[in-house]
Structure formats: C-alpha cells, structure tokens
Design brief:
single chain; alpha/beta; Rossmann fold; Chorismate Mutase Domain, subunit A; 2 domains; six-stranded mixed beta sheet; five-stranded antiparallel beta sheet; 12 helices
Length: about 325
C-alpha cells in the first residue's frame, strides 16, 4: 500500500474546504470512522488520516460484521488496515442476521452511535458519496417520497445524544473515489453483495444509473446529488416555517383551522403531517395528510376516512374551528 501522506490531491483539497465551510468536524475532535472495507470508506480513512495533522483529530476505526455469508474475511481485513494506519479498531458483531438492507442499516447506525458515545467520540464519519446521494434520491423517488425523502443523505445530523453523523465525501462520485484508491494503491475489499441485483439499490447502481448516464446525461450522478442539496435547503426552510405555524395551530383540542387558512398548501401539509404523526405514532400517508388538509375549509362534522393507530381505529372530524381526533 502506498502511504504518502504528503501527497495533496484535488480531493484532499475539496474535502478540507468542505469541512471548513460546513463546519462538519471541529479542530481537535474525536472522530470515529465507520469502515466497511469498501473503496468509499477506505478513501475516507486515507483522507482523514492525511488531514489529521491539520485538524488535530483523534481518529479510530469501527467495523460492523453483519454475519452475512459473504462477510468472512472482511473484519480481519479492516483490522489489518487499521493497524497499517496506526489507529485503534473496534469490531461489532451482529447478534442475528438481518434480512433486509433497511434493517441492517438501522442496526449499524444504532450500534455505531452507541459505541461512539460510550468511547467519547463527538462524531461518526461515513464514506457516503455523491453517487450514494443520487441512488438514494432515485430509490426514494420511486417509492413515492416527497421532498423530505428526496433530500436524504444530508451532510450531518444528530445520531445519538452528543454524537453527530457526518458525511465528508458528498461532493465526490464513486468514479473519483475509485481513481483515488487506485492512485494510492489502497487496500480495498471488493464486497460481493454490492453486485447482488436482488437488492434495489444494487440495481439502481449497476443498471439504472449507467443507463441514465449513457442515454441522458453523463453527469447524472452529480446532477442528482446537486438536486438533493437544493431540496435540502428548501426542506429546512419549509420545516422552520411549518414549526412556527404548528405552535399556534396544534392544541389539545386538535388542529385550529383558522390558523391554517390562507397558508400555502406546502405549509398546510407539513403542519398536518406533524399533527398526524403525533396521533398515529407513525408516518402518515399522502392520502391521510390530504384528507385532513381538505377539512380545513370543509363543512361542520366532515369526517376523514378511518385510520389505523396503535390503539385502534380513528378519524379526523371538523368541529367548529377545530379538526378533532376521534377514536372508536
């Protein structure tokens, strides 16, 4: 493995600038790196190790073993890489084998967040890229997500108390990162599961995005990642506006219609979604949200369709200036 920490590539410079501009990681921070062994996380490891003298970070590596059939050897490989980079290493082994991508992802974030908090790390850094952002946007779009889902994979967010999840590589595409790993001869583990087309994200990565790149736009990954970034700013603004309205519109009696009349539909929907999430204890559907929005200007005693909750069946009903929550 070539390890010339003095080499300074355009990717080094870009990540360094994004860290400062977005205030992702402060100087002297304790940073836990989530390293799967694949090219993205190994690239993140190399970049952070090279930037460490400039930022005075304390770095360490964590790896999650899902106990999948394709996993044998990966944990040992990552531990060896950690030794070569001179960094502490922690291995977390799953108690059971998760069958879906979503369940495995939720487990990883939970156990990595807990480890970071227990060991005093202020941040957990992952190697998500612009390509991952493009894939997530397409995946959520095809599932019918709104702007909130399309802007997923943000630069940083709270993970557990006192620990933030940060993604320093969101401007880099997978092609750039592959070239970086080849230039420095980094020890990348080729994960066979990344090519299993039974996973939706693998099909998006290996079939849909190459098709879009070839037939529509060679820069499709970057364009989609930029779209996610634009949507992020829009969502942040709308959520802040909706929160102010919700404070005045949501009360123990229900949802105050007069406070919502005259507001843009985008804000009405967001306030109604916040209210329904509290009542349903789960994310409401688009149809449920729109049914309540239509009640803002509906006649007295107008009822929505019945909705299932954790404690039975319920509906929204117009009563004077209020949209009230009724149960049976």
């Amino acid at each position: 493995m070539r390890d010339e920490s003095r080499d300074w590539t355009p990717l080094h410079a870009r990540v360094h600038q994004e860290l400062r501009r977005r205030q992702l990681l402060v100087r002297g921070a304790r940073v836990l790196l989530a390293v799967s062994g694949g090219q993205d996380s190994i690239c993140l490891l190399k970049l952070c190790r090279d930037l460490q003298p400039k930022w005075n970070w304390t770095l360490a590596i964590a790896h999650c073993d899902h106990r999948w059939p394709t996993d044998p050897g990966i944990a040992t490989h990552v531990e060896r890489v950690a030794r070569e980079f001179g960094l502490p290493f922690w291995l977390i082994v799953a108690d059971r084998v998760e069958e879906t991508e979503a369940a495995a992802r939720a487990w990883r974030y939970r156990v990595l967040g807990d480890l970071a908090r227990e060991r005093g790390f202020a941040a957990l850094a992952t190697g998500h890229t612009a390509s991952d952002r493009a894939e997530t946007l397409l995946y959520n779009f095809m599932r019918g997500a709104g702007a909130d889902g399309l802007q997923a994979l943000v630069w940083q967010r709270p993970l557990v108390p006192n620990v933030r999840l940060v993604r320093p590589l969101l401007t880099a595409t997978r092609t750039e990162i592959k070239a970086f790993c080849q230039e420095f001869q980094l020890p990348v583990w080729e994960d066979a599961t990344n090519r299993e087309l039974r996973f939706a994200r693998a099909r998006i990565r290996h079939e849909l995005l190459p098709y879009l790149s070839e037939h529509f736009n060679p820069q499709v990954e970057s364009v989609l990642a930029q779209t996610a970034e634009v949507l992020r700013a829009d969502v942040d603004y709308l959520e802040a506006q909706a929160a102010d309205i919700a404070n005045a519109a949501i009360a123990p009696e229900g949802l105050r219609r007069s406070r919502l009349r005259g507001e843009p539909l985008a804000l009405q929907r967001r306030v109604v979604r916040q209210w329904l999430q509290t009542e349903l204890a789960r994310a409401p559907t688009f149809a449920q949200i729109d049914a309540v929005v239509s009640a803002i200007n509906a006649p007295q005693r107008t009822r929505s369709s019945t909705m299932a909750t954790n404690y039975g069946r319920a509906w929204a009903e117009v009563a004077g200036d209020w949209i009230c929550w009724r149960t049976e």
